[in-house]
Amino acid sequence: MTLERCLLLAFALFAIGVYGALTRRHLVGLLISIELMLNAANINLAAFAHFRPGDATGGATFALFTIAVAACEMAAALSIVVAMYRRRRNLDLDKLRSLREPIEAEPGAGKAP
Amino acid sequence: MSLYLILSILGALVLLSSLGRGKRLVVPLAIAGLLGALAVTGMGLGLDHPLLKGMAEFDRYAVLFSCLLLVLGTLVVLLLTNPNERSDIPRVEMAALLLFSLTGGIMMASFAHLVMLFLGVEILSIPLYILAGARKRERAGNEAALKYFITGSFATGFLLFGIALIYGATGSFSTRAIAAWAEANPAVFTPMFHLGLLLMLVGLAFKISAAPFHFWAPDVYEGSPSIVTSFMSTVVKVAAIAAFYRLFSEAFPAAADAWSWVIAAVAALTLAVGNLGALAQRSFKRLMAYSGISHAGFLLLALLSVGPGSAGALWIYAAAYSFATLIAFVSLLAVEAAGGGESLEALSGLGRRNPFLGVCLTISMLSLIGVPPLAGFFGKLFVFGNAVSQRHVVLVVFAVVMSAVGMAYYMRPIIQTWLRPPAGSPFQLSTSQAWVLGIATAFVVLLAAAPVWVMRFL
Amino acid sequence: MKNLLVVLIPLLPLLGFAVSGLFGKRLGKSATGLLASGMVLLSFLCAAALAMLHFRTGDSAIVVNLFSWIRMPGLSIPMGLLVDPLSLMMVFVVTGIGFLIHVYSIGYMHDDDGVARFFSYLNLFTFFMLVLVLADNFAVLFIGWEGVGLCSYLLIGFWFKNHAFNGAAVKAFVVNRIGDAGFLLGLFLMAMTFGSLSFAEVFSRAASFGSGAPAITLITLFLFIGASGKSAQIPLYTWLPDAMAGPTPVSALIHAATMVTAGVYLVIRSNALYALAPLTMAIIAAVGLATAIWAGLIALSQRDIKKVLAYSTVSQLGFMFLALGMGAWSTGFFHVFTHAFFKALLFLGAGSVIHALSGEQDIRRMGGLRKALPVTYATMLAGTLAIAGIPPFAGFFSKDEIFAKVFEHAPALWAIALAGAFVTSFYMFRLFFLVFHGEFRGDATAKHHLHESPKVMTAPLVVLALGALGAGFAGLPEIFGAPHWISDFLAPVTGRGESHLSHATEWMLMGASVATGLLALLFAWVRYGVKGRVPAEDASVTGVARWSLGKFFIDELYDRAIVKPLFRFSAWIHDVLDRRGLDGAVGAIAGISPWLGQQVRLLQTGNTAFYLFAMALGVFLILFVATLR
């Protein structure tokens, strides 16, 4: 295992995460994708801590912090998702569209006065 | 250190007090604690010593921004006592969450280590995801919370990945060490450093709702309870821009070539989107959301001219913006409580329904336009002046044109307030609202006398 | 003592604003009016006392520094007031004429519900106008500049209670903001170049730059953009005619006598800078002359009594800028001074007519009012004679001085300006004869209601008419042998202009301009006084009714050669260029922003997936450009 391979893995994971976040419509899939992005960063942190001279404990500690913070974040997120499921009985992101610009245009707003 | 502890313990105490019969004591307790925290911060002035083994530092910049955040936080918590406010909001939990979020904001203003920055961002954000959905029975609140969470954590992913790359490139998380590294390797910024820098920029640009990372803001502002929105548009924005400036002026000044063009482009786009978007709004709440986006653009201008006086300019601008915005949201809360909606028409004849509120709202809008001699004028004057002195003339000209556009939509609430027939009968403000309005208006007016002091202090 | 007086001048109207704004409802209508007028009068008296105490001894300026406002490394701005001959004269104009208009408003606004609000705005306006003229640096001046703009906006919108906020008001706003943006850029540039915004420091430091320095040219150009926005010059003049929607006293005070002259004041105040920028001066002269002619031609075909006066104001402001472009600072100010009297008079007179006709503003439904409104008739005659430049009325002296200066520098421009004077005289007498002579053209009920205005309205008219008669004697031409009082008084600020014209030339010029004025009067008299033409016919003047021999020849010649082409040209300018050209351009700027706003709005689809995609796209673009660099 070299640093380059670790980095390659991390970048690949991050890219998969971003791709997933952009394409998933199901909220659970979306949460997993975001979790992938965070964990890609964690791999980076651990890899740098292991292979690079310098503040080695810092990287490892940061990774621990991230895991804890991500757990909190996901707990909050899941509670919101559950609340959504209770009310709407589905978890489709595309259905979340009541908050937006009003559909009908304001009279005269698009024309020169 | 003590400030973080005070606020966290305060939040925990507030939560505990809800168990017994202490519910009525919650807000007084929180306010007393916040005022205590403000006093502690004030006393810590000039002590400058690093905290937590150099992970945070309460220098003058941090103290001044912490004071601003604490005052804003206190005012928002004060609004929670309003008896007119709808009863379906869980006040105790909200007070506690606001305090936790405020703690995160203060960490963002005082970090000296990227762990503290990351923790600050997360401690600020996670309570807000929940606060956005504080009205459990409303679909809009739930949708706002989800949208905020999804876009927010997506941005956090970029921020964290950026931090990891910076660590890999420089071998440290400390802002001083990063700055020293960049200083020592001026010509050979590695791609990794470059990429990390830009990803961190993106993460923070999301928090201040700069375009094209702003899309969440209007929807989330609209869907959240107005009290929470007032917190988001003041405390969150101030904390985010404080962290933004602190990071780029302390860790990356030597790499300015690598990021200043991005800031300039993002600022220009943000100014355009915020101001033009606000023009077409009918809802006062959404108008204020776009107003927040446009001011993020003006605040970014301050980042372009890092140097003597720019931190002071940033502080004045941030303070002027956030107090004026707070006034606007108090007006919105009062009008909502009096039976009006969130549309601009609900403000109709406000000057006759409640003259005090009308005057305060007018002052707030005038300050947001930048009419002298109110605080907003000085913010714009200093920020523009600094940017011009750094040869960003084209951008400043664009910003001036955009602030002219801003005049067109900020005049609309004023026109509604004074030149339209009243939309309802006269109403009274609750005591807490009157206090918040009075204090915030006093700041907007009196800050005009303070620029000298702030500039000398920072 | 002196300092106290200086501070009191702006403070009293501010006090009036606070009291009438807060307690206006409780005080009652007439008490509020008296209070507001009284504050302005007191302010006038303070200025008079100051003049008696101080300026007789020969000192030139008082500076009062209230407090240090902004202090930064490299730039410090005190909140300072400056009283020198120029600002003192402006204070006299603002408070003196302002007082008369306040008194007039007591009568004019008597039946309106919002009297207290009206007077508080009027006092607030007076306060900001005084801050503008008393400022001792450009930053304080800018406060006043923005303040008067805001008050003007509030007062224009005063009667717009229940209407949609219309495009005209938005346009007024956008146009003024374009001007203000220019002003602000000028200020930034000035602060960068000179490291100061104080008049004294900027002007003394500018002297070392030498004539034609690019920095100075740029600063003066930006300031002139600001000035042409506020003073309604081409291409930023279109807002002023629209602003006539406000109550008539507002038009008299803000859109004739005081605020619109702020641009002229700014240029006179900065004369030390402009003297170093010959290019800017040439532009000012060209814009001024073009505006004077252009607006005059448009005024020819207007049918709304206030619109005629509004275009006439634009045109007269053009003459003022023409004088400034020649470097004749005190001459320009002299015209500001006399114009304040006769144009306020004309507007108030028009207000009296509108009042008598219960709101009718179309001159085609007036006529023969001289019997019903004798005082208004007499005073309006004085005002019309003054603006037409008939001696010994005030306009004659100031206009003649402008023409003399123009002739001295550029005889060709003089000829054009003389044509402008002809047009001025013609449209004013057209208005005058149409309103006061001939038969009444309104319906019977309107005729029954005709009444002279109350004393509280006619008294200011009489005072202003005396001013329109006498103000010119403050600046008698050199050949009369009397001292030119205005020019002498302003000499510490503007310097003393030298005249190189021979006496014979001056007499000739004077004769030419009087003859032009009288000729136009005659034409207007024949057309509207004797023949009783009404503008409605203008479009269809094809068949000629009477074939009376000699009369026909002159009449036809006059019609074909002068009047009809003029009217066609005027209508063409108004329709094609004014409405579709310039107005369209301004409208397009004002119009494209909401359109763009709409596009921004449409992106906000509520679809979170799109938001994420936009963010990712943003990141991608940033990284992509970063790799290219």
Uncertain regions of chain A: pLDDT < 50 for 5+ in a row? 105-113
User: For the CA atoms, what is the radius of gyration of chain C?
Assistant: 26 Å
Percentage beta strand of chain C: under 5%
Q: What is the string of helix and strand elements of chain A? A: HHH
Count of individual domains of chain A? 1
Strand order of the largest sheet of chain C: 1-2
- For the termini of chain C, the CA-CA separation is 66 Å
Q: Structural class of the secondary elements of chain C? A: mainly alpha
| Known CATH architecture of chain A | Orthogonal Bundle
Question: Globular, elongated, flat, extended or rod-shaped: what is the shape of chain A?
Answer: elongated
**What's the Cα radius of gyration of chain A?**
20 Å
Mean pLDDT of chain C: 82
Briefly note the structural class of the backbone of chain A: mainly alpha
Q: Quick one: biggest sheet of chain A? A: none
Please give a handful of descriptors for the protein shown.
heterotrimer; B: 458 residues; mainly alpha; two-stranded antiparallel ribbon; 74% helix; globular; C: 629 residues; 2 strands
Note the topology.
The complex is a heterotrimer of chains A (113), B (458) and C (629).
Chain A: H1 3-23, H2 27-51, H3 56-88
Helix pairs in contact in A: 1-2, 2-3
Chain B: H1 2-17, H2 26-43, E1 50-51, E2 56-57, H3 60-79, H4 91-110, H5 114-132, H6 139-170, H7 175-184, H8 191-207, H9 216-223, H10 226-250, H11 256-279, H12 284-303, H13 310-337, H14 350-353, H15 355-369, H16 375-389, H17 393-419, H18 431-446, H19 451-457
Helix pairs in contact in B: 1-2, 1-4, 2-3, 3-4, 3-10, 3-13, 3-18, 4-5, 4-10, 5-6, 5-10, 6-8, 6-9, 8-10, 8-11, 9-12, 10-12, 10-13, 11-12, 11-17, 12-13, 12-16, 12-17, 13-15, 13-16, 13-18, 13-19, 15-17, 15-18, 16-17
Chain C: H1 2-27, H2 29-55, E1 62-72, E2 75-83, H3 85-108, H4 115-134, H5 138-156, H6 167-194, H7 199-206, H8 214-230, H9 239-242, H10 248-257, H11 262-269, H12 271-274, H13 278-300, H14 305-325, H15 329-356, H16 374-388, H17 394-409, H18 411-436, H19 444-449, H20 455-470, H21 485-494, H22 503-530, H23 549-603, H24 608-628
Antiparallel strand pairs in C: 1-2
Helix pairs in contact in C: 1-2, 1-4, 2-3, 2-4, 3-4, 3-10, 3-15, 3-20, 4-5, 5-6, 6-8, 6-23, 8-11, 8-13, 10-15, 13-14, 13-18, 13-23, 14-15, 14-17, 14-18, 15-16, 15-17, 15-20, 15-21, 16-18, 16-20, 17-18, 17-22, 18-22
